[in-house]
Amino acid sequence: METQGHYFEPPQDSVWPGRASGPKVVAFGGGHGLYATLSALRHLTTDLTAVVTVADDGGSSGRLRQEFDLLPPGDLRMALAALCDESDWGLTWRDILQFRFKSNGEMNGHNLGNLLLAGLWQILDDPVAGLEWMTRLLDAQGRVLPMSTVPMAIEADLEVNGEIQTIRGQSKIAKAPGVVRRIRLDPPDAPVTPQVLQALTSADWVVLGPGSWYTSVMPHLLIADLRKALVRSPARKALVLNLSRQRGETQDLTLPDHLRVLHQIVPELRLSVVIGDPVSVTDIDDLQDAANDLGSQVMLRQISIGDGTPRHDSLRLAAAFKDAMSGNWGDLSSIEVLDNH
Question: What's the whole-model pTM score?
Answer without folding.
Answer: 0.89
